[in-house]
Design a protein that fits this description.
alpha+beta, 71 residues, 3 helices, binds zinc ion, 3 strands
């Protein structure tokens, strides 16, 4: 699963891939790659964004991949 987080310090948004089973233990441990501040989970946006339009599924996936932090 890819979850979107936002940095509390610099407002950068980052997509982080976390296995669903590890989400609860990982969600509070995410740090901003830029300023090392704590990241806050952004509430479900993907389903909504698709419905609103302007995002094709392919463009969305490409965007996700480019922003996903590889462990
Ligand atoms: Zn930051």
């Amino acid at each position: 699963m890819v979850y979107e987080f936002r940095c509390e310090q610099c407002s950068k948004s980052i997509d982080v891939e976390i296995p669903m089973s590890e989400y609860n233990s990982q969600k509070d441990k995410q740090l901003c790659p830029d300023c090392n501040s704590k990241l806050k989970r952004v509430i479900e946006w993907n389903g909504m964004a698709y419905r609103v339009g302007g995002y094709s599924e392919e463009a969305g996936a490409a965007k996700w991949q480019s922003q996903t932090i590889k462990k």
